[in-house]
Amino acid sequence: MEEDHDGVPGIASYVADNGCGFDMNTPDTRGKGVSNIHARANSLHGALRYQTGAGSGTTVTLWLPYERTAR
Fold first, then answer.
1. Would residue 70 count as lying in a domain?
2. Where in the sequence is the domain holding 26, given as residue range(s)?
3. Tell me: the pLDDT tens digits for 11-70?
4. Do 55 and 20 meet the contact criterion of CB atoms below 8 Å apart?
5. Environment class of residue 38 by beta-carbon count within 10 Å: exposed (0-12), middle (13-18) or buried (19+)?
């Protein structure tokens, strides 16, 4: 879907599930998935947002600018 982020035009995509969720304040010692996804989004001048909580589902939204130099 097309979406502006801080006034910059780009595209957003999201993935949602109704699983058990996770606590973003508790370090995950099983891997580096969340930090790797953040690093990749940042390298493309994008933004990543999680909506989750222990016992609830998770929605991950990735926004990327149309132009790589937009940020």
1. no
2. 2-65
3. 999 999 999 887 777 776 566 787 888 899 999 999 999 898 888 899 999 999 998 764
4. yes
5. middle
